[in-house]
């Protein structure tokens, strides 16, 4: 079903990343997307732009510099008191106006609470396609965005295109793409856009913001070492085997979705497509089969170690190291062996 | 209060099987359920009706058998069910789906009056995009309140509402105006057991069915595959790493296996040992 791109979309060029900017800081997913957007823009031979909305000149200056450092050639900068805190209505209005005026061919957003709230509204207003939670983005031979995401059912991926509409929109979850290395002092062009916004016309008001207790939030997504358990652990009690190994390794811990569904672990410990995406240096999965929804959440790990009784478990297809063994028996021994190893080395060193 | 709840019939993911040879999803014989996230909106709707009176209408777009899910919702206590079903809707992406559903909502509103609130699920368990709710809100000009964990106050007379919304680093307390589109966060409530009466009534009730023409859709190019800007080009199995996992042998017992595994890890990632030691010395 290949059709020509309609004439009025031919002038659409460049790759945009919506910069999620709240409480004076850029969400890391936006920087990850600048890294990914850079590759797409280079492949297409076009510019990469960060789209930055907010209020407060100082913090926007700082954020603008960051966009350049992480790869943007251009920053569309929109400053207005109404944009101080995210609200759907004014953000949708401004984003839609920007797209119509400056005509990007690709627009990427983080699949965060904010990004998902905004992307659906903007795509509907523009009547264009939006692919959710992509795990891979590429440019095909026809200069079209090929957005790949997992499909339900456990073992398949699909590649989705938006052939006849522009921009081609996609969301990507945090930590799915690698964080690029910033280049301090890198410069670019700023395009200032002044929207017509009046507070009286905005129907939703922010009465209060109750920040989360930072200490309680799990640092799982950013941990260098993660140990996780799955249904192969067989009981809630055995979760502690995972926690103990993580603790000896100074890492964090989590589990597969069924453990959350059973109430064995909290929802913010879930790893995978509908949980957290992790990119640790070492990931140890104990008693996890390796379904696609789990796989896409851990594939960015430098090294994946799987412990599973079934030599044919799908996890061995993408793990680097595997042990065909009973995790419940192996975990405590492994924990103790690591502890000894560290002890010996510490005394030697 | 007039409340609409959008529910999608989805395959019970726990029972989906993939064909071992063709790698396609085998839908035949897979039981269907109401998308679990939609039940949080339904329960919230029923609670509001308990407090303010009025009616809860459940709506769905899908094949004729989706009426089973609507009937199930009546069994939980919803007052009536509306199904939009037509072969022209096959292959809808989220843009085409939000178009069809917003026409169904407008049709229902013509007969019952504009709803105060339209509930959607946070996302589905099959498509899993979370895009349809915002799409409907945008098309109908409803206040968009997603990821709501609690409704603090609502006044249907004044047309005002105050909610708590789960944001990335905390909770936003938002005041807004009706009509609103709300997606409820999972765990915000628990679906009730329908009364004996509800269950009996559900079994007897008719689910009203409309086709595209019935809800006034004239331009079929906005529906189904034709009305969907996204195109699925390829469905494939994830690549298998060229080399499979190196299996660390476990023949000589658990502790030999553990040592062998540690050696193998550190041989491949020598930097890890330094990292680990640095961390350990911090204790
Ligand atoms: C829309 C959608 C989203 C999803 N999102 C996620 C997600 O974010 N994260 C996620 O994890 N899942 C997710 N899932 C579920 C996913 O498809 C799998 O069902 C799930 O990952 C399986 O969990 P598991 O590997 O722990 O359990 P199982 O698949 O039951 O596997 C258990 C494994 O343990 C092994 N085992 C058994 N006994 C032992 C033992 N004694 N020692 C060692 N190994 C043993 C078995 O061989 C088996 O491989 C999602 C599903 C859907 C449909
Ligand atoms: C594996 C897979 C991947 C897909 N990827 C994309 C994609 O990236 N982009 C895209 O545009 N489309 C995509 N689609 C198509 C999309 O799933 C369909 O358009 C679907 O009709 C609605 O999207 P959803 O299931 O993601 O709903 P969501 O947007 O996740 O649903 C949110 C809420 O909207 C309501 N709702 C949704 N559908 C209905 C319905 N039929 N009847 C009543 N209420 C409903 C429910 O309250 C639901 O909880 C995909 C489909 C599949 C199977």
From TrEMBL, chain B:
<dbReference type="Pfam" id="PF01012">
    <property type="entry name" value="ETF"/>
</dbReference>
<dbReference type="InterPro" id="IPR033948">
    <property type="entry name" value="ETF_beta_N"/>
</dbReference>
<dbReference type="InterPro" id="IPR014729">
    <property type="entry name" value="Rossmann-like_a/b/a_fold"/>
</dbReference>
<dbReference type="InterPro" id="IPR014730">
    <property type="entry name" value="ETF_a/b_N"/>
</dbReference>
<keyword id="KW-0249">Electron transport</keyword>
<feature type="domain" description="Electron transfer flavoprotein alpha/beta-subunit N-terminal">
    <location>
        <begin position="22"/>
        <end position="219"/>
    </location>
</feature>
<keyword id="KW-0813">Transport</keyword>
<dbReference type="GO" id="GO:0009055">
    <property type="term" value="F:electron transfer activity"/>
</dbReference>
<protein>
    <submittedName>
        <fullName>Protein FixA</fullName>
    </submittedName>
</protein>
<dbReference type="InterPro" id="IPR012255">
    <property type="entry name" value="ETF_b"/>
</dbReference>
């Amino acid at each position: 079903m290949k059709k020509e791109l309609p004439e009025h979309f031919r002038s659409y060029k460049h790759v945009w990343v919506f910069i999620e900017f709240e409480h004076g800081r850029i969400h890391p997913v936006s920087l990850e997307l600048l890294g990914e957007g850079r590759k797409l823009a280079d492949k297409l031979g076009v510019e990469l732009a960060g789209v930055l909305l907010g209020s407060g000149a100082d913090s926007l200056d700082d954020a603008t510099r960051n966009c350049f450092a992480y790869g943007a050639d251009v920053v569309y900068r929109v400053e207005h008191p109404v944009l101080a805190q995210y609200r759907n209505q004014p953000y949708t209005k401004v984003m839609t106006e920007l797209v119509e005026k400056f005509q990007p061919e690709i627009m990427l957003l983080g699949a965060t609470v904010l990004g998902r709230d905004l992307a659906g509204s903007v795509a509907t207003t523009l009547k264009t396609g939006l692919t959710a939670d992509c795990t891979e983005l590429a440019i095909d031979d026809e200069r079209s965005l090929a957005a790949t995401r997992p499909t339900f059912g456990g073992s398949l991926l699909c590649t989705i295109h938006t052939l006849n509409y522009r921009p081609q929109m996609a969301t990507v979850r945090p930590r799915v793409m690698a964080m690029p290395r910033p280049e301090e002092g890198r410069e670019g062009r700023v395009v200032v856009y002044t929207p017509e916004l009046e507070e009286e016309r905005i129907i939703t008001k922010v009465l209060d913001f109750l920040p989360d207790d930072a200490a309680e939030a799990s640092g799982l997504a950013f941990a260098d070492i993660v140990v996780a358990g799955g249904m192969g652990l067989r009981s809630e009690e055995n979760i502690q085997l995972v926690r103990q190994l993580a603790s000896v390794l100074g890492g964090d811990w989590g589990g597969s979705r069924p453990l959350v569904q059973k109430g064995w672990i909290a929802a913010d410990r879930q790893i995978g497509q509908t949980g957290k995406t992790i990119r640790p240096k070492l990931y140890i999965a104990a008693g996890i089969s390796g379904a696609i929804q789990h796989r896409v959440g851990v594939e960015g790990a430098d090294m994946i170690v799987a412990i599973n009784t079934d030599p044919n478990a799908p996890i061995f297809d993408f793990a680097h190291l595997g042990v065909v063994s009973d995790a419940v028996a192996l975990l405590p021994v492994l924990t103790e062996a690591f502890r000894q190893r560290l002890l010996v080395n510490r005394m030697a060193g | 209060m007039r409340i609409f709840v959008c529910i999608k019939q989805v395959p019970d993911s726990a029972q989906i099987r993939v064909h071992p040879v063709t790698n396609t999803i085998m839908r035949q014989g897979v039981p269907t359920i109401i998308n679990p996230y939609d039940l949080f909106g339904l329960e919230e709707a029923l609670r509001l009706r308990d407090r303010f009176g009025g009616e809860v209408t459940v709506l769905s777009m899908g094949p004729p058998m989706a009426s089973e899910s609507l009937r199930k919702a009546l069994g939980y206590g919803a007052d009536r069910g509306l199904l939009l079903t037509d072969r022209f809707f096959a292959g809808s992406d989220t843009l085409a789906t939000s178009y069809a559903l917003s026409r169904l909502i407008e049709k229902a509103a013509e007969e019952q009056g504009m709803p105060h609130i339209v509930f959607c699920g946070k996302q589905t368990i099959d498509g899993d995009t979370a895009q349809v709710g915002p799409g409907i809100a945008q098309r109908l000009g409803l206040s968009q309140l997603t990821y709501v964990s609690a409704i603090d106050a609502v006044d249907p007379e004044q047309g005002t509402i105050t909610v708590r919304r789960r944001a990335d680093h905390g909770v936003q307390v938002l005041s807004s105006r009706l009509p609103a589109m709300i997606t409820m966060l999972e765990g915000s409530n628990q679906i009730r057991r329908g009364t004996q009466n509800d269950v009996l009534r559900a079994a007897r009730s008719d689910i009203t069915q409309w086709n595209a023409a019935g809800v006034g859709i004239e331009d079929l190019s906005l529906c189904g595959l034709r009305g969907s800007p996204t195109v699925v080009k390829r469905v494939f199995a994830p690549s298998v790493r060229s080399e499979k996992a190196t299996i660390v042998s476990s023949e000589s017992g658990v502790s030999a296996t553990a040592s062998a595994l540690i050696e193998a890890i550190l041989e491949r990632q020598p930097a890890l040992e330094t990292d680990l030691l640095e961390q350990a010395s911090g204790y």
